[in-house]
Design goal:
The complex is a heterodimer of chains A (about 475) and B (about 475). Helix content of chain A is about 40%, strand content about 15%. Chain A contains 15 helices and 11 strands. The longest helix of chain A has 21 residues. In chain A, the strands form 2 sheets. In chain A, strands 4-6-5-10-11-9-7-8 form an 8-stranded mixed beta sheet. Chain A folds into 2 domains: about 270 residues, Amidase signature (AS) domain (Amidase signature (AS) enzymes); about 80 residues, no CATH class. The mean pLDDT of chain A is about 95. In chain A, helix 5 runs parallel beside helix 6 and helix 9 crosses helix 11. Chain A is an alpha/beta fold and about 475 residues long. Chain B folds into 3 domains: about 210 residues, no CATH class; about 110 residues, no CATH class; about 60 residues, Arc Repressor Mutant, subunit A (Orthogonal Bundle), CATH 1.10.10.410. An 8-stranded mixed beta sheet of chain B has the order 5-6-9-1-10-11-12-13. A 3-stranded antiparallel beta sheet of chain B has the order 4-3-14, with no helix packed on it. The radius of gyration of chain B is 29 Å and the shape is elongated. Chain B starts with a strand and ends with a helix. The model of chain B has no long low-confidence stretch (mean pLDDT about 90). The chains are: A alpha/beta (about 475), B alpha+beta (about 475). Chains A and B meet through helix 9 of A and loops of B.
Chain lengths: ~475, ~475
């Protein structure tokens, strides 16, 4: 029996019916990782032993009738979530030797759900990047074309799910780091409302933007995963006290009566024509499913990338100050004095993109520049947020492209950071506003997957899942595999 | 030229909470290095701060007690700088929106002068850890037990005009935080630390001179000395044609001098910005009012009560209410004795305080309890001993020889108030001093005191002085 294309829902059924054991499922995916990961480089750590031990425990739970819906199903964890006793590198040389003595809240939740952590996935260093080329552990390859990037920063997770090395994975999304790689790898990914998923133990890049979320083959699977991940956490003051609904409850609602907007700014210059065609077809499909389609405007869209590249680096420059070689992580050899310890530890331990952002952020917060950069960017953030709120007065969802182009070639944009940054142009505004955003497979351009982005108002994830699920009932893009 | 000193103080008060401001680790002093630092205090990757609400209550209590503006919203900010004992590379503090705004504190300068000192703001922040430079063979050790300890930084206006005023302000502030029980105020352990901004200007000038900041002085005495040194240094510099530079200076208590730590050109740019890990503190009026009801009697309220209830002078009342411990000691003694409150006040502000000062003892560690002092004062009131003998008894009590009654009886200190016995002694003295008696009778009235002295000597001070006076007068007729 082949398990590789089974969804979580299907695996869950098989496990409950005892057609297959968690140990068998886990071994199956461990074998696939052993076979395919060398070419893809999607994993930093594979947890052969602990995964099988967890699978055994899960089987006991299933046998005793104490299983939850996803008990015994393997998942991969982006290497940004701390895992007690297992290395958490954040894709950086700085944390190559770091083993957290605690679990992230999300890790704890998955443990409690009885899911099996099969490994930790590759990522852009400290989640900074859109191509996964900024990893200390080398770039991840796109399973659809090994000469191309999988997107970033959660490229390892996206590639692993796309290549069916694991049925589900976690990611984090600060400016598009779940949605952009999901789109480029033909899988489903959601960045929930800011504050929906605890950030405790999720290594910070830009605290006011970072949000964890799941990757899966389908919207239904993603909903099941978010059911586990979401919820208030006392350890994270920014996690919101707001009831977590069952995200699968509204999957089957018809789309009639739903008003879906598309922003004309998302179809302006910068978007590749072929991509635009795919997205327009996807929108037509939603209309066929009963939704009313309406053009809207998000007039400050063009300011999102510049504002983001002030706010995110500013927060990053402060968040990454703790990596100083004093208490844990990388420390340079034989420091001569304190300055030398700081300079060489950080000089040797961080990659180029990290340093670029630390310098930009430090500059933006400096006395004399703070008002002109940081404060101004915060004002723009407010404007962008307001644009969305205005839009949501007349529409229930906003859809559009997730990224302006399909996956680009490895190395194509490494020397052009601005062009790299612009690949997140449609996703970044959602982070600045703190809204939930999702991407689902919507078609192909020259055999490369294209994602459709869906954006909802705060805490309206259920509506995203509903629309995405209905779309996936009517289409089979999400079933295509490399 | 005549110079005027201008001083503003920044006081770091450690708030007395069981756990840290942003983590659950304990704050107890004196534990082995790094045994009270959790993942959050260590600034481990991915961990997040969660505000200890007790610190907010304590800050609000302080704000209300100084009649400060309390804004409904205050914000934590990150103060970014690198130092090995600062685990995150930033300190969580408050910058643009502190929890306590403008307020004021009245300080007593001498018996007749009260001065109102403006308080600019008070904000919550976390303490850093400690670098240990000994015992590490050319390296430094880091102890992060103190990292994350809650502090309230209280910033005064540049309203103070002398080291003396600065000390008076500090003592009043110290008294207040102890009354409010928001800090143990322990200066040796660093629970009450002071930075002084000092400048001088020609008398009459309205613009401020360039100031130097003296860092981390942790005793009232050192604050006074450090400021006096710094003022003299600045005046000397200016009078010899030099200029004061804005800089941070360190006070060296051993050499009694301030030394430059770092100049402005090396000053850190702290790159403050709102901490995205913490929500703004939102305080509604209801919370403010409910905290107001928890405020204890404050030093100045107690002073007024001492004046009205006990008929004490403003200054006695002020001195007695300056510390909570002193005030409580006084009240307990008054309650337990027949002696008048004035006599109790005299004893506490006199001998008792002198002993405390001399032996550098805190009231809490006084060998005398209020009840013991009360017993001693009762023995004066009921004429068992004289006030003079009482001092001898007091000495013995301080030395731990037991209760007043025990000391009086074991040392035979009971006052001689038996008229016939006293008369006998007086007769003897007069008989033995015929010359002095003759001189007295010839108008040498000063010799009256001589006879009293002789009588006291003969009775080892135990004669009831009032009776001696009366009887002697009669005899000398």
């Amino acid at each position: 029996m082949s398990l590789e294309n089974k969804t979580l829902v299907e695996l869950s059924k098989d496990l409950t019916a005892k057609k297959v054991s968690s140990v068998e499922v886990t071994q199956f995916y461990l074998d696939r990782i052993a076979q395919h990961n060398p070419a893809l480089n999607a994993f930093i750590t594979v947890c052969n032993e602990s995964a099988l031990a967890e699978a055994k425990e899960a089987d006991k739970k299933i046998a005793s009738g104490h299983a939850g819906p996803l008990t015994g199903i393997p998942y991969a964890h982006k290497d940004i979530f701390c895992t007690d006793g297992i290395k958490t590198s954040c894709g950086s040389k700085m944390l190559d030797n770091f083993i957290a003595p605690y679990d992230a809240t999300v890790t704890t939740k998955f443990k409690e759900a009885g899911m099996v952590m099969i490994g930790k996935t590759n990522m852009d260093e400290f989640a900074m990047g859109s191509s996964n080329e900024n990893s200390f552990y080398g770039p991840v390859k796109n399973p659809w074309d090994h000469t191309r990037i999988p997107g970033g920063s959660s490229g390892g997770s996206a590639a692993a799910v796309a290549a069916r090395l694991v049925p589900a994975a976690t990611g984090t999304d600060t400016g598009g780091s779940i949605r952009q790689p999901a789109s480029m790898c033909n899988i489903t990914g959601i960045k929930p409302t800011y504050g929906r998923v605890s950030r405790y133990g999720m290594i910070a890049f830009a605290s006011s933007l970072d949000q964890g979320g799941p990757f899966a083959q389908t919207a239904e699977d993603a909903a099941l995963l978010l059911n586990i991940m979401a919820g208030h956490d006392e350890k994270d003051s920014t996690s919101v006290i707001h009831d977590v609904p069952d995200y699968t409850a509204e999957l089957n609602k018809p789309l009639t009566g739903l008003t879906i907007g598309f922003a004309k700014e998302h179809f302006a210059s910068g978007l590749e024509n072929d991509v635009a065609v795919v997205i327009q077809e996807a929108i037509a499909e939603l209309q066929k499913l009963g939704a009313t389609i309406k053009e809207i405007s998000l007039p400050n869209t063009h300011l999102a990338v510049p504002a983001y590249y002030v706010i995110a680096p500013a927060e990053c420059s402060s968040n990454l100050a703790r990596y100083d070689g004093v208490r844990y992580g990388y420390r340079c050899e034989n420091p001569k004095n304190l300055d030398d310890l700081y300079c060489r530890t950080r000089g040797e331990g961080f990659g180029l993109e990290i340093k670029r952002r630390i310098i930009v952020g430090t500059y933006a917060l400096s006395s004399g520049y703070y008002d002109a950069y940081y404060l101004k960017a915060q004002k723009i953030r407010r404007l962008i947020s307001n644009d969305y709120q205005t839009a949501f007065k007349s529409v229930d969802l906003i859809v559009g492209p997730t990224a302006p182009s399909p996956a680009f070639k490895l190395g194509e944009k490494v020397d052009d950071p601005v062009s790299m940054y612009l690949s997140d142009i449609y996703t970044i505004g959602v982070n600045l506003a703190g809204l939930p955003g999702m991407t689902i497979p919507a078609g192909f351009v020259k055999s490369l997957p294209i994602g459709l982005q869906l954006i909802a108002n705060y805490f309206d994830e259920s509506r995203l899942f509903n629309a995405a699920h209905q779309f996936q009932q009517a289409t089979d893009w999400h079933k295509k595999t490399p | 030229m005549e110079w005027e000193t201008v001083i503003g103080l920044e006081v770091h008060v450690q708030l007395s909470t069981h756990s840290k401001i942003f983590s659950g680790a304990a704050t107890a002093y004196g534990a082995d290095p790094n045994t009270q630092a959790c993942a959050i205090d260590l600034g481990m990757p991915g961990v997040l701060p969660v505000l200890n609400k007790k610190t907010v209550e304590k800050a609000l209590m302080f704000g209300l007690s100084i009649n400060a503006e309390i804004s409904n919203k205050s914000v934590f900010a990150r103060k970014n700088y690198f130092y090995p004992d600062l685990p995150k590379g930033y300190q969580i503090s408050q910058y643009e929106l502190p929890i306590v705004g403008k307020g004021h504190l009245d300080i007593q300068l001498d018996e007749n002068t009260v001065k109102r000192v403006g308080i600019t703001r008070a904000h919550l922040e976390e303490d850093a850890g400690k670098s240990l430079h000994e015992d590490f063979h050319g390296q430094s050790g880091i102890d992060l037990n103190r990292a994350g300890t809650p502090l309230l930084e209280i910033v005064s206006e540049p309203d103070l005009r002398s080291a003396k005023e600065a000390v008076a302000y500090l003592k009043t502030l110290h008294s207040l935080v102890r009354y409010l029980d928001i800090s143990d105020g322990n200066m040796q352990e660093g629970s009450f630390r002071c930075d002084a901004n000092v400048s001088v200007r020609p008398k009459g000038e309205t613009k401020f001179g360039t100031r130097a900041e003296i860092k981390n002085v942790n005793s009232f005495r050192f604050v006074e000395r450090a400021i006096n040194y710094e003022v003299a240094r600045q005046i000397e510099l200016l009078e010899s044609g030099g200029t004061v530079i804005q800089e941070t200076r360190l006070y060296d208590a051993e050499r009694n001098e301030t030394r430059s730590m770092r100049g402005k050109e090396e000053a850190n740019d702290y790159r403050y910005f709102p901490d995205p890990d913490l929500l703004p503190i939102i305080i509604d009026d209801k919370t403010i009012e409910s905290i107001r009801t928890t405020l204890p009697e404050l030093p100045w309220q107690r002073r007024e009560r001492f004046q009205s209830d006990f008929g004490l002078s403003h200054y006695d009342s002020y001195c007695l209410s300056l510390t909570r411990e002193m005030a409580e000691f006084f009240e307990a003694t008054v309650k337990a004795t027949q002696a008048t409150p004035k006599i109790v006040a005299n004893w506490i502000l006199g001998d008792f305080s002198a002993y405390l000062n001399k032996e550098q003892t805190e009231i809490s560690e006084s060998p005398l309890s209020p009840q013991q002092l009360a017993q001693l004062l009762d023995r004066i009131a009921d004429n068992t001993i004289s006030g003079k003998i009482a001092k001898t008894v007091f000495d013995a009590m301080w030395a731990g020889e037991g209760d007043a009654d025990k000391i009086i009886s074991s040392q035979g200190l009971t006052q001689i108030s038996d008229s016939s016995a006293l008369e006998k002694i007086i007769d003897e003295i007069l008989l033995n001093n015929p010359n002095q008696l003759a001189q007295y009778r010839a108008g040498g009235e000063k010799l009256f005191g001589y006879f009293v002295g002789q009588i006291m000597k003969a009775t080892q001070g135990k004669a009831n002085p009032q009776q001696v006076n009366e009887l002697l007068k009669k005899k000398l007729g």
